[in-house]
Each structure stands twice: as structure tokens, then as C-alpha cells.
Write a structure and sequence with these properties.
166 residues; mainly alpha
């Protein structure tokens, strides 16, 4: 028995039978513009707060990685009586270093995974003995801009929480 009791059912029934064009076949231009305006307004309000947090998240990730490296470097020093040289680098925390004098009692790996790049895609800077810390090491990242100094996301992050000395 065909549905003829209300318009919606008639339109649906006529579509199913392949009958004429339905009265409500799409959205009007005004409806589309209203939806686009709502989406644009939401993006304008929410977007800056989301993207502002990305920079802070990268800085936090870099600080955490520096702390993890510092712990691994301290364990390396306890086992070998010295930090890896600049030439051996942070890779000495992952595998026995081939450069320079071999460590006497390497018990690594001191990191579970390969040494990652900083959150901006550049390698961390490791100098041993350090310039700012001549009895230990300097470990830092130059931030988003890759240059000395800077503010916010461009600021340098160091393992000793001080400025980078050139």
C-alpha cells in the first residue's frame, strides 16, 4: 500500500519509484553560507588556543628529553668514571662508542630507544667537557629558530637551566 499520508513519505516514495524530482533535493545557498560562517567562527575562536599550546608542548617535550638524557649520562658516568666525549656523543648511551678510547665498563644501553631529535627536528647539542659546565657536559637545544637566545618557543633549553655560552 503506497504511503500518501504526509509529504515526507511521498517524496521518499517518489524517489524510490524513480518518479519526478523531490521538492527538497538539497541545501540552499543561504543555508550553506550560514554553516560555513559558523565553522569559520569556531575555528577563529578555538584555533589560537590550540596552536598556542603546541609551542608549549614542544618545550615541555624538550625539557623532559633533556632530563632523561641527564639521567642516562649520570648512569654512564657511574659505570665508566667519565661522561662520553663530544666525539662519542649521545649515541654512546645506546651502543658502545667506537670513537675515542673505549669505555672501560660500559653496561648499556642507557637509553631504551635511539636518541631522538629535538621537537623541532634538529639534533641536541652535546659538548663534553662542557663550556658552561667544564667538569661535566653541556646539553641543550636552540629552540624553534635554531639560533642562540630567543623568547618563548625560540628560547634555548639547557640541561643546567642557564644560558648557552657560545
Amino acid at each position: 500500500m503506497p504511503c500518501t499520508s504526509n509529504r515526507v513519505h511521498r517524496r521518499t516514495h517518489s524517489r524510490l519509484r524513480g518518479g519526478g524530482r523531490a521538492a527538497w533535493s538539497g541545501f540552499t545557498l543561504i543555508e550553506l553560507l550560514v554553516v560555513i560562517a559558523i565553522i569559520a567562527t569556531l575555528a577563529a575562536v578555538v584555533g589560537p588556543s590550540i596552536f598556542g599550546n603546541v609551542g608549549e608542548a614542544r618545550r615541555s617535550a624538550a625539557k623532559s628529553q633533556l632530563q632523561i638524557f641527564a639521567l642516562a649520562l649520570d648512569q654512564y658516568r657511574l659505570d665508566n668514571d667519565a661522561y662520553p666525549t663530544s666525539e662519542q656523543g649521545l649515541d654512546a648511551l645506546r651502543s658502545i662508542p667506537l670513537a675515542g678510547a673505549p669505555p672501560p665498563t660500559w653496561k648499556g644501553p642507557y637509553l631504551r630507544q635511539a636518541v631522538p631529535a629535538d621537537p623541532w627536528g634538529r639534533p641536541y647539542v652535546y659538548i663534553s667537557p662542557g663550556i658552561a659546565n667544564p667538569r661535566a657536559y653541556d646539553l641543550y637545544t636552540l629552540g624553534r629558530d635554531g639560533k642562540l637566545g630567543g623568547e618563548n618557543e625560540d628560547a634555548d633549553l639547557t640541561s643546567w637551566n642557564g644560558p648557552v655560552r657560545p
